[in-house]
Design brief:
Elements (H helix, E strand, L loop, with lengths): L10 H61 L12 H10 L5 H14 L3 H5 L3 H8 L5 H18 L8 H4 L7 H11 L9 H10 L7 H11 L5 H14 L22
Length: 262
Amino acid sequence: MIFKKPNAPDASSNESSDVSQNESQYASQDASQDVSKDVSQDVSQDVSKAQSSDENQRKLVEDTLKYFDSIYPEPKCGLTFQDPYELLVATILSAQCTDARVNQITPHLFKAFPNVESLAGASIEAILDLIKSCGLYRAKAKNLKLTAQKIVTEFKGKVPGKLEDLITLPGVGRKTANVVLGDAFGIPALTVDTHLGRLSRRLGFSRRDDANAVEADLMKIIPQPLWTRFSHQAINHGRQICRARKPACIDCKLNLCPSRVI
């Protein structure tokens, strides 16, 4: 019987395999490092872009506030009123109705019903007769009476000075409540009507259509003490210059406005 001597391990083959494994390992490490570097660069670029965007927005907000102060130095509510009761009633009437029209109606209304108690006791017909030149007057007459009754029974005859209480009143949403808070109680509030909503989107302060969402976006970038003032200024600007159909960009000095067209 002939025994064959086992072949000795091929040293060159092993060395080649080791080299191949090492090269593969190094290549994998290099690729991993490249991917990590690319990801790091992408993240860095994204952070840089975000910081640049934030800085641009801060600059635009600052410029907007200064510009509004220069052209609307003493902004005020367009509705005529003497106390929270009168402003609440006037604001309810102002839905889909001009301030000018409401200001023609309220003197006669308040002469007939000078306080919340008298309005609560009024007949719907009597209220209708005084506000019939106002849009949606039937629904508004009903809401005015119900609101007055609720103030008498639940708030001791005083218009509440808290948002969460005001929005429980019939015909009162956040916009109406914020008007009352800001102008009757001196509590900073943002009144997002069609004008302020439009300006906010054109300026890039908000991308959303819902008024409550726009309000939330503005709260983050407009200093709270300026909320009421800014609201009136923006509403004036929307009526006079940044109109819905034909904004007069040539008359506006907000050069950083992203929607500016000259």
